[in-house]
UniProtKB/TrEMBL annotation:
Keywords annotated in UniProt: Membrane, Transmembrane, Transmembrane helix
Sequence intervals crossing the membrane: 20-41, 53-73, 80-98, 104-123, 130-148, 154-171, 178-200, 220-244, 256-284, 304-322, 329-350, 370-391
Pfam families: BenE (PF03594)
Name assigned to this protein: Benzoate/H(+) symporter BenE family transporter
UniProt-listed InterPro entries: Benzoate_Transporter (IPR004711)
Length: 397
């Protein structure tokens, strides 16, 4: 048997495209416009310092960029990667109170699970068995508190909240792809007009990552690792692969999952909680707007590799820029950025009448602060929701 050869080739001059490059830059930047601020909420809740945040952003930016470069050049298709955005929302309630070494260990274990799923070819088999309604309900339960915070923060900053929420609703109708980014711009404009926003303290030095030692526990495995993998599979990989197939591509699903798992393991010691296939923003790179010729659209994620590298190398500057904004703005951006994901998750969770009760219980338990035997609400939501689902399936036969 001939050994497998992995060859990549840089884009030829005929593949260079301004429209595809802009699509890659825009798609990768959108991840920083909204979901990134969730990491600041994780850090605030867990009492993590700026060095952890800088390293965390460095790791997930560089890891995402490397995956974009490898898969776009290896398979000549617009495969865009990003960090586990719904997973970062999950961490707001899970990381506080857990030793940081256990958190790093949980990241390593979740990456190992993805790697095994991809190498064994078990990804597509698992998807066929996984009740998507329960996975969607789990994700919805994680996201709902962020959307509620959007409105609760309006009490202290009504003008900012109303302008941002109004802008988002209008932009979702007229410019849906750019709604989050332009909503952030609208919020920044309000702050500059009313509070004299300043970025004089931004640190433009190159950032250096930290390496953290892992420790391992069953509590971290079941409370953090398993939920991280499930929300990545249901909220990112399935959607991202569906988008690629919809636009006429045949993505190597198992290789994508394995590559994500490997890179997640490699960068977990920097604080990176996991990287995966990009979902909704990936459509910017896969459609005809990026380039009329599908074979040249891979240039977008190739350019995104360098864009991610820039954000990673200057992650300290990124941290200091975001810290210049008031806490209410950070919470509102996070809530708005996750509204679309919450809407889609709720729709998927309740779409099947026979699974609705199990999905509803999964949603409510996840959204609660239930904690038993040192295990989080996300774990118990899967156990109880899964038990209800299995019982209903058995009684229906």
């Amino acid at each position: 048997m001939q050994p497998t050869r992995f060859r990549i080739a840089l884009p030829g001059m005929g593949d260079w495209s301004l429209s595809a490059a802009v699509a890659g830059i825009l798609a990768s930047t959108m991840g920083y416009a909204g979901p990134l601020v969730i990491l600041f909420q994780v850090a605030d809740a867990a009492g993590l310092n700026d060095a952890v945040l800088i390293s965390w952003i460095w790791g997930m930016s560089i890891a995402s960029g490397l995956l974009c470069g490898w898969f776009s050049l290896r398979y000549k298709m617009p495969v865009l990667f990003a960090w586990n955005a719904p997973g970062s929302a999950l961490l707001v309630t899970l990381v506080p109170g857990m030793p940081w070494g256990d958190v790093i260990g949980a990241y390593l274990m979740s990456g190992a699970m993805l790697l095994i799923l991809g190498l064994s070819g078990g990804f597509e088999k698992l998807i066929k068995r996984l009740p998507l309604s329960l996975a969607a309900a789990l994700l919805a339960g994680i996201l709902v508190n962020f959307s509620l915070a959007l409105f609760s923060k309006m009490t202290g900053a009504p003008l900012l909240g109303l302008v941002m929420f109004g802008a988002y609703i209008v932009l979702r109708q007229v410019l849906p792809r750019y709604a989050i980014m332009l909503t952030v711009v609208a919020g920044v404009a309000v702050l500059m007009a009313t509070e004299g926003l300043s970025f004089a303290a931004v640190d433009w030095q190159l950032s250096v990552p930290q390496l953290y030692s892992p420790s391992f526990s069953l509590s971290a495995l079941f409370s953090v690792s398993v939920p991280l993998v499930l929300v990545a599979l249901s909220g990112q990989f399935i959607t991202g692969i569906a988008i690629l197939r919809q636009d006429g591509f045949a993505p190597p699903a198992n290789q994508i999952v394995a590559g994500s798992g490997f890179m997640s393991i490699l960068f977990a010691p920097t604080g990176c909680h996991g990287v995966n296939l990009s979902a909704i923003t990936a459509a910017i790179c896969t459609g005809s707007d990026a380039h009329p010729n599908p074979t040249k659209r891979y240039f977008g994620p190739f350019v995104a590799m360098f864009w991610y590298a820039m954000f990673g190398l200057f992650s300290a500057a990124l941290v200091s820029v975001i810290q210049a904004f008031p806490a209410a703005f950070i919470a509102m951006v996070a809530g708005i950025a996750l509204l679309g994901a919450l809407e889609g998750s709720l729709a998927a969770a309740l779409s099947q009448a026979k699974e609705r009760e199990a999905a509803l219980c999964t949603f409510l338990i996840t959204a609660s602060d239930l904690s038993l035997l040192g295990l989080s609400s996300a774990f118990w939501a899967l156990i109880i929701g899964g038990a209800i689902f299995a019982l209903q399936q058995r009684l229906a036969k």
